[in-house]
Amino acid sequence: MRILLFVAGVAVLGWGAFLLAEFALPLGPQGMVALGWLLGGPLAHDLLVAPIAAVAGMLLVRVVPATWRAPVQVGVAITAVLTLLAFPLLWREFGAAPSPGLHDGDTATGLLLTLVAVWSVVLVTGTSRVLLAARNEKRAAPDEDRIRCGAFTRGYRLRMAGVGLGRTRGRASGVTSPRRVDRRG
User: Fold this and answer.
1) Any bridge partners for residue 172, and if so which?
2) Close Cβ partners of 119 (under 8 Å, ≥ 6 residues apart)
3) In 3D, which of 47, 42, 53 has the Cα closest to residue 77?
4) Which of helix, strand or coil describes residue 152?
5) Is residue 174 a contact partner of residue 163, using CB atoms and an 8 Å limit?
6) Which residues contact 94 (CB under 8 A, 6 or more apart)?
7) Nearest residue to 10 (alpha-carbon basis) of 34, 41, 18
8) What integer pLDDT is reported at residue 43 of this predicted model?
9) For position 101, what pLDDT does the model report?
10) Domain boundaries along the sequence of the chain
11) pLDDT reported for residue 145
12) Which of 101, 126, 133, 139 could be joined to 71 by an S-S link, Cβ 3.0–4.6 Å?
């Protein structure tokens, strides 16, 4: 199966190389455009997009609390992708090939509304994660007022009383633990 995938990949690669040569080899203006796209895209990514993404990621880790980190990272990634997709139409109005419905709407307003929806979901998700973490933390840590008042769960009171350890406040309870078995024979 892998060999078939390899052969298909090489065939598609060969077809792409043929089409590129057909388009760009007469070294004219089309060849320079092709060269610009083939060299400019990777250079723009490596010199512009990747460092900005790396710095944004480092800032997010240092600034954003742990419970908010994942929703904010997803929101930033979706914002970056949507902005990159809308950029040609924001930069020049007819920057892409016309297709039905593409140029009918206002690109800037559409991008803004989509980003508002994305960040609304980020806000709801982050808030729910904070509330869930606070609820779990409250359940995990005993409340100091409840400890002082003695209003605790039955299991906690029994553990504190020594049930299961062979004693109940100095008196024998008849319940022993495997750790404290009476070895008097």
Assistant:
1) 167
2) 75, 79
3) 53
4) coil
5) no
6) 103
7) 18
8) 87
9) 61
10) 1-63
11) 54
12) 126
Q: How far is CA 49 from CA 6, 36, 69, 173, in A?
A: 31, 17, 21, 70
DSSP 45: I
Hey, which residues does 167 pair with through a beta bridge?
A: 172
pLDDT score at 153:
57
| Residue at 54: amino acid letter | A
Which of 153, 78, 75, 150 minimizes the C-alpha distance to 119?
Answer: 75
- The CA-based dihedral angle spanning residues 135, 140, 146, 152, taken in that order and rounded to the nearest 10 degrees: 120
Task: Quote the tokens at residue 127.
Answer: 């808030």
Residue 130: count of CB within 10 angstroms of its CB: 13
Q: Look-up: residue for tokens 């008849």? A: 174
Radius of gyration of the chain (CA): 32
Contact (Cβ atoms closer than 8 angstroms) between residue 76 and residue 56: yes
Which stretches of the chain drop beneath a pLDDT of 50?
167-168, 170, 173, 185
